[in-house]
Here is the input.
Amino acid sequence: MAASRTGEPPLSDAENFQFLAEVDAVKPGKLAWFEIDGHDILLCHTKEGFYAIENRCSHGLAALSGGRLRGCRIICPLHGGSFDVRDGSATGKPASRPIRSYPLRIADGRIEILLPAR
Here is the structure.
C-alpha cells in the first residue's frame, strides 16, 4: 500500500493520485482540458474550489471544454445541456445522464487527480 502525503488513508498502488496541474495555472471561473492515461479530463475552478469531470457531454458527446462555466455548472456548447461539476450530475436538458467526476486533492500547490485503474 502506498501512503498518502496528506494524512489520508493509504491507497493501493492502483489508486495513486497523479499530478494534474499547479493551483495557479487555472484562474477562478476558468476551465482547463487535460488528457491523462486515456482519460479526457476537464478541470473546473469555481468559487467553491477545483473539480474534475469527464470532458464529454453524455447527450451529444461534445467536448465540454468549449462550454461555459456558470457557478458550479458547465453548459455544453452543442445543445445547452448542463452538468454539476461537483459530482457530474445532469442539471439541464437535453442532458439526462451524469458524466464521470474524479476525486482531486491539493498538496503543496499541486492539484492531483485519482484516476481509475485500467
